[in-house]
Amino acid sequence: MTSSRxxxxxxxxxxAFIKVTFEEDAMPQLASGAADPAYEPWVDQASxxxxxxxxxxxxxxxKLYPKHSVxxxxxHSTNVLGFPGAMVxxxxxADLITNCIFIPVARHMSSVPGVLVDQVQFGSFTVAWxxxxxxxxxxxxxYGMGYMNQTFVLHEGPExxxxxxxxxxxxxHSQLHQEILVFNGNYWEKSYPLWAEVQKAxxxxxxxxxxxxxxxxxxxxxxxxxxxxxxxxxxxxxxxLIMYGPPGNGKxxxxxxxxxxxxxxxxxxxxxxxxxxxxxDEVAMQATFNMAxxxxxxxxxxxxxxxxxxxxxxxxxxxxxxxIESNDGILIIGSTNHFDRLDPALNNRPSRFDRKYLxxxxxxxxxxxxxxxxxxxxxxxxxxxxxxxxxxxxxxQTEGFSFAYLKEAFVATLVLMAGQxxxxxxxxAALLKAQIKVLREQLDKDKDAxxxxxxxxxxxxxxSPSAQFGRRPPHSSSLFKVDERMLGMPRIWDTSxxxxxxxxxxxPGASGPSSPETGLGARRELRSMAYSFGRSFMP
Length: 539
Description:
Shape: elongated
Strand content: 15-25%
Number of domains: 3
Mean pLDDT: 79
Distance between the termini: 70 Å
Low-confidence stretches: 20-31, 453-479, 496-539
Radius of gyration: 31 Å
Number of strands: 15
Number of helices: 18
C-alpha cells in the first residue's frame, strides 16, 4: 500500500530529530539521584497539567511504601509539623523545596532587620509521637485563587495511629497558647501581639468609682459562676453587656481587663474587628458565633458596636444573637461611643444586651481619683513635688475633661520636663497647670467644631467589589506577622496558610561537647520555647 504522505523536508527532519533527542534525554536528567524516592515523580507530575494532585501522590506513595497506610489531610488546623508534642526531622534535607520570604521586624522589637520564613513546597519528614513512627509528606500546589497545602501521613501498619496523631495535633492547634482569637471579616486568626497587649491591662489602672467598677466586675464574674443557676431556672446561659459613653473614658482598657481576667480563668477571649469582607456579613456573623459556641464558655468582644452592626446586617446579627441556635456560655460585651445610633432592638431589649454601663466624662471626685493615681505613680520621683493640694486643683480645673484628656495633661507635662537640659527643671505644678490650660482651649475648639459639623454615620451601602475581594481568598497564603516569639530562632518554616511555625537549627544552649545532662537541659529548653512560641518543629 502506497502512502500518500509527502516526504519530510530537511528542516522538518531536523526538527523531529531535535524533538526526539530532547525527549529521550529529559528523563535521564530528571533522575538526578535524589535520596527521596517520591521527589522526582512529584516534580515530574507537578510540572505538567493535572486534575487531582492528591490522588496522584497517594497512589505513588502506596507504590513506594506498600506496607504503609496513607492518610490524607488538607485541614490546616491539623498541622502535624507544627505540633510541639511530636518529634520532627526532615527525612532528606537536600530534597526540601521551600520558598524563602523576608519579613521585616519592627525596630523596637529587635536589632535584627527581619527574619526569613521558608514555606514548604515539597518535603518529607520523619515524625515520632506516642511510641509510633510516621513518615509525613507536605506538598503545596496551585488551587483556585491561591494554593493548597496537602499532607500525607504514612504509618507502617494500620491507619489508626495516624488518625490519632491528627486528632492530637488538631486538638492542640484548636486551643489558645498565649493568643487571642481575632475575627477580621473573613476568617479567625490567633494573635499573640493582642494577647501581649492585653496582659498590660489591670483593673487597678481602670480609674472609675469603686462602686461602678465593682458592680461591673460582679456582673461579669457572676455570669461564669452561675451556670447551674441559669439551668435550674430553665433559661439560656448567656448574657450581653454594653459599655457606652464619649470616647476616652475607659471602655477600651476595661475591655482589656475583662479579656485578661477571662483568659486567666480559662474563658477564651474572642475579639471581632469587622464583619465586612468578601464572604459577606451574613456568613461572617455565622462564622463568628459558630466559633464562640465552640469555645464556650467564652467572652465575645464587639468594639464599636455602632460600626459593626448596620441596617444591612442587623437582622443577621439578631438572628445569631437570640435565634434558634444555643449560645450557652457566651458573654457578649459590646462598646460604642454613639449609643443613640444603635437600633432599639439592641439598646433597649433585655436578653440581647441585658445591662448597659455608662462611661461618662469623669466628675470631680473621679478626676481627683485619677490625679491621685498619677500622684502614686510619681511618688518615688524626687524631682517632682506632687502635694495633695495639687490633686484638688487638678480636679477642679479639669471639668469636662475625659480621662484621655487628663492623661494627656500629665504625659505632656512629663515629656516637657524630660526635654529640659541640666538640673534646672521647671516646676511640675506650674507646668501641669499650663498644659491643662492648653488642653482646655483645644477642648473648647473641638466642641465648637463638633457643634457645626455634620454628624457622620456608618455607611449602609454594600462594599465595592474591590473592597469585597481585597481580602485573602480561601487556601491562599496570608500576610506573615512577626512577634518577639519568632526572634532569635535560627530557622523559621511555614507549612500552612495563616500559620507560622519555627524550626530551630540546633539545640539551644548545647554548645561544646554534648552530654546526657546538657542534652536533656537543651531539650527541655527547646520544648519550653516550642510551647511559648506556639508552633515549632522538635528536632
